[in-house]
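Our preliminary data section would be incomplete without showing what the modeling component actually yields. Below, a chain of 314 amino acids is followed by its predicted structure, encoded as tokens that our downstream tools consume directly.
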Amino acid sequence: MSKEQSARCCIACGATLVQPSRGRRRVYCSKQCRDLQRQQRDKQKTSGIKGRKKKRVDWSCAACAKTFSLRPFEALSKLYCSRRCANGARPSSDGRGPYKCKHCQKSYFTKRPKGEGETFCSRSCSEAYSPLRAGPHTRITFHNCEHCRKRFASRRGAKLCSTSCRLEVGRVRSKKLEVQKSQRRKPIHCQQCGCLFSRLYGNKSRLCSDQCAVAASQSLKRKAKAARRASERAGRKAFGVFDPFEVFERDGWECALCNVPTPEALRGTTANAAPELDHIRPLSKGGQHSKENTQLLCRSCNLGKSDQWTAPDG
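Predicted structure:
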């Protein structure tokens, strides 16, 4: 078929084509012809590939020495002819070995990384063999920890086996230094109980113990509460700030009117014998909130007295 005829005819079926005046020239008369021509072209390509001979290389198995063929790019990575040979060539679950222990002459396997664990079968053999080595060139020595008495290996002659032991020893030393420094300082009197005590280094408290600190805080609260209530009743600021317990101890924990014992355990309760602070001259009648103007009354007497007060003659 000439070029002019091919330009006028379909490539697949040979039918006459009518070319457009503009645009791309037609090659097939229909879509079916185009698909048929493409299928034939694909078959020719695949048949040529299947018929082509692939290059292969003969290789010997590393386990059974059997010869088998490989593709050239597989020869660098594949060493065994089958999975059975590959599994059989793997190391056993016991690890690498066998090695011979230098101390007990026993054969053993190890799972440690390459280059480690190939001299002694256990740590006990290594420790037992270490004194037999030549002295000056020995790099690893064994010692007993000064804190926990545990045996450990060291290259620098350390005296403590771990960081926890070093921290614990440091804490003990710091406590000893604190005690020594506190003994050098002059003792002072406790503000609550009055006993002599020496403060630790860095401690600025003037209370000897936690119990005294709690008692002092409670005393301050009682003082503030009594002063606040007195100022609310009198309508002005209170003149004195003191602890009601000081008045109770002055009066011997007995009611000033009926001489009934008022124990400290009943303070703050509604019992008749509960100790209460009473102003001799009531605040509503010009009395002052001071130790001289206060007394201890039981609850029943304090309720009966209320705000009664008789002015002295003259």
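Confidence is low (pLDDT under 50) at residues 1-6. The helical segments are 3-8, 31-51, 83-89, 123-129, 163-184, 210-234, 244-250, 299-305. Preliminary results of this kind motivate Aim 1 of the renewal.
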